[in-house]
What does this fold into?
Amino acid sequence: MNADWIIRQGADEVVLFFSGWGMDRRIADYFSSLSGPASAYDLLAFHDYRSGEIDAAIGDALCAYRKRTVVAWSFGVWSAVHAKLPPVTHAVAVNGTLSPVDPEAGIDPAVFQATLDTYNDENRYRFNRRMCGGGEALEHFLSVQPERTSACQQEELDAFSRRLQAGERPEGFRYDHVIIGGRDMIFPSSRQYAAWKGYPQTVIADMPHYPFFHLAGLAEVLACSRE
It folds into this structure.
């Protein structure tokens, strides 16, 4: 997987932002800008999960921090727990589950396979519209959408498919808190409720799968894990 330092100023805490499928660093750049210039943490963004491995140098750098906090969105929720991170202090999942392709706790398998089989430039726009629910959220996403080709995104989705079929199981850490969008049409909210039964939850009723138009910034997300 790719990793980009968004903020690196020698803080005691590092936030590990695991983005969703098909993304690059642009959403993390935007989201970090909402925190203002005097951030209390460093920020490392992960994306492009065609490989599920973290570079050894990145792993060594993370070990130097006193606190490591995970914020994971969509397929990043599953990817983060497979990333063999150093011990995690806090972790928040946003619009994703540990069973990302599952008829009861994730995306319907037939829908996932159809997306993989037919993904192209035209269907990419349709997916983005469904992810955002249209309107202002879609306009916002298009202003920060990843600078990746549809073919590259399809390769990543195929890599997810192969790893899921191999039966990889979550390991490493437990999420402290989950944030669920009530209008999520990718990971339906009812399935997220089922997947996270017993976990502390924040439900944002009008939030679609793409959450970054509705969340005020990383500070709001981080506060959830520390209540």
Observations:
- The chain has one domain: 2-224.
- The chain has nine helices and seven strands.
- The chain has a mean pLDDT of 93.
